[in-house]
């Protein structure tokens, strides 16, 4: 509920402020808040996620970043965040899978 409340509050600020830099910072904040429950659940139950999806998503946004003709905070911050968030998530899941016994994947 905390993530949802924070995301909704950030959306209201985004609508009111109408500044592209602040908007993209808030978009990153909103997305990060929405990602917290997925990250927390996958930390506890790493065998329940298909990490290929997150790896491919990170790779997709890496190509977005590399294809930017003009790199500014409003154009680059969100895709850079998505690259980092997806790859950090994949790394965390791989580490957790190596730490926990394989039987946990059936829980």
Core attributes:
mainly alpha; 4 helices; 107 residues; flat
Q: What does the model show?
A:
- The chain has 107 residues and is an all-alpha fold.
- It has helices at residues 2-17, 20-44, 51-67, 73-99.
- It is flat.
Tell me roughly what share of residues is in helical segments. over 70%
User: What would you call the structural class?
Assistant: mainly alpha
- Gyration radius from CA atoms, angstroms: 16 Å
Q: Total helix count?
A: 4
Provide the low-confidence segments as ranges. none
Secondary-structure element string: HHHH
Fraction in beta strands: under 5%
Q: What is the total tally of β strands? A: 0
Name the overall outline.
flat
**What's the end-to-end separation, in Å?**
24 Å
Mean pLDDT: 87
How would a textbook summarize the main sheet?
A: none
